[in-house]
TrEMBL record:
Source domain of life: Bacteria
Keywords, in A-Z order: DNA-binding, Membrane, Transcription, Transcription regulation, Transmembrane, Transmembrane helix
Keyword Membrane: yes
SUPFAM superfamilies noted in UniProt: Homeodomain-like (SSF46689)
Protein name (record): AraC family transcriptional regulator
Every HTH araC/xylS-type domain range: 255-359
One annotated GO molecular function: sequence-specific DNA binding
Ranges annotated as spanning the membrane: 6-27, 34-53, 65-83, 95-118, 130-153, 181-199, 205-226
PANTHER family: ARAC-FAMILY TRANSCRIPTIONAL REGULATOR
């Protein structure tokens, strides 16, 4: 099978996969996150249509198809940004329109050119070919990479802020960081590859590699969407309040808070956050944060996980939990994943849970 044929097959698979999953996500009711992800998937796989038209020779018989407004090149990554932003913060309609404005302008320009007779649109393209190449060979990748780097910074800020209010370091934020890094790699590859394509070097190999990477990415991000995970949104006003100057703090109040968490085993709730603890204790979120920062000298996340680590140690040392796996002990103690449990346990005890369990059985 020729490289061109292989490339076309992969493009069809990627397009079908993106259209089916993207359409399914868009049709899901009462789930804005998944709806935005669906629009992103559709926009991300849409260029496959342009590639398919080009490689099947349809442009020779119908040149106007070059302007078919299905690229969404300047809309795809902003949609991904809106998906991430809507997961971790609250966004409104004006915010959405602002970030989609460039993509909307691109769509309208191609829509007009598509309906203009080719005897006018093609000469216009040839006249400004240098501008077209500059935009889609360089500016587009710079635009997308800038967005992706900004997303990574936003996720870093989110993870730092979530430690102040959430008892479990969110697995979803870590997953989104990996996904964004994967997109950075994809767009970096496209940026480098575009220079080879313009020189007509390794063109077919680049197309097939790009198609494979894009298809794998569509599958990768769809897994997260299908699982439909949610994330605790951060409120910037609450975070500012938590960082304000300390009120008058009493150690007795901190000890009562500590006793409540221990006595009621609140730490066993994997979804425990500062809002839930505030409701149970009757202490404001700001006061809880300040008590923990001042007397425990760390954040809310570390404070709650210290109880979980102690609980896990007791379980490991107890014969009642001898048949429990490390993962089962982690879940029972309140951790939401084995990896986060291993990480916190090693930082707290200087060894992995597995090593601690082995040592508890054979202390000598």
């Amino acid at each position: 099978m020729k490289i061109e044929s292989v490339s076309q097959v992969i493009e069809i698979i990627g397009l079908a996969q993106g259209l089916i999953i993207g359409g399914y996500f868009i049709l899901k009711k009462n789930n804005r996150n998944i709806n935005i992800l669906g629009f992103f998937l559709l926009s991300y796989c849409a260029p496959f249509i342009s590639y398919f038209i080009r490689e099947t020779g349809m442009l020779k018989t119908n040149p106007s198809l070059f302007f078919l407004p299905v690229g969404f090149y300047f809309m795809s990554i902003p949609l991904y940004f809106l998906y991430v932003e809507n997961l971790i913060y609250k966004i409104d309609r004006s915010f959405v329109l602002k970030h989609l404005s460039v993509g909307i302008i691109e769509f309208l320009i191609f829509l007009v050119l598509f309906f203009i007779p080719v005897e006018y649109s093609l000469p216009l393209l040839y006249k400004y070919e240098w501008l077209y190449n500059a935009i889609y060979a360089s500016l587009l990748n710079f635009f997308c990479l800038s967005y992706l780097i900004y997303i990574l910074l936003r996720l870093k800020i989110y993870r730092k802020g979530s430690l102040k209010i959430n008892s479990n370091d969110t697995v979803n934020a870590s997953w989104l960081q990996k996904t964004t890094i994967l997109l950075v790699i994809l767009y970096s590859f496209q940026f480098i590859a575009s220079n080879f394509i313009m020189l007509d070097i390794y063109k077919e190999i680049i197309y097939i590699t790009d198609s494979i990477l894009a298809t794998v990415f569509i599958y990768w991000i769809s897994i997260f969407g299908i699982k439909n995970r949610s994330m605790l949104k951060l409120d910037s006003n609450i975070l500012k309040a938590l960082n304000q100057k300390n009120e008058e703090l009493e150690e007795s109040e901190y000890l009562k808070l500590k006793e409540l968490v221990q006595k009621e085993k609140l730490f066993k709730n994997t979804n425990l956050n500062i809002y839930i603890l505030s409701e149970v204790s009757g202490i404001s979120t700001r006061k809880i944060s300040q008590l923990i920062n001042y007397f425990y000298e760390n954040n809310f996340n570390s404070f709650i996980n210290s109880f979980r680590i102690n609980e896990a140690k007791e379980m490991i040392n107890s014969s009642n939990y001898e048949q429990y796996t490390i993962e089962a002990i982690a879940k029972e103690a309140g951790f939401n994943s084995k990896s986060s449990f291993n990480s916190y346990f090693k930082n707290h005890e200087g060894m992995t849970p597995k090593a601690y369990k082995r040592l508890s059985k054979f202390p000598n």
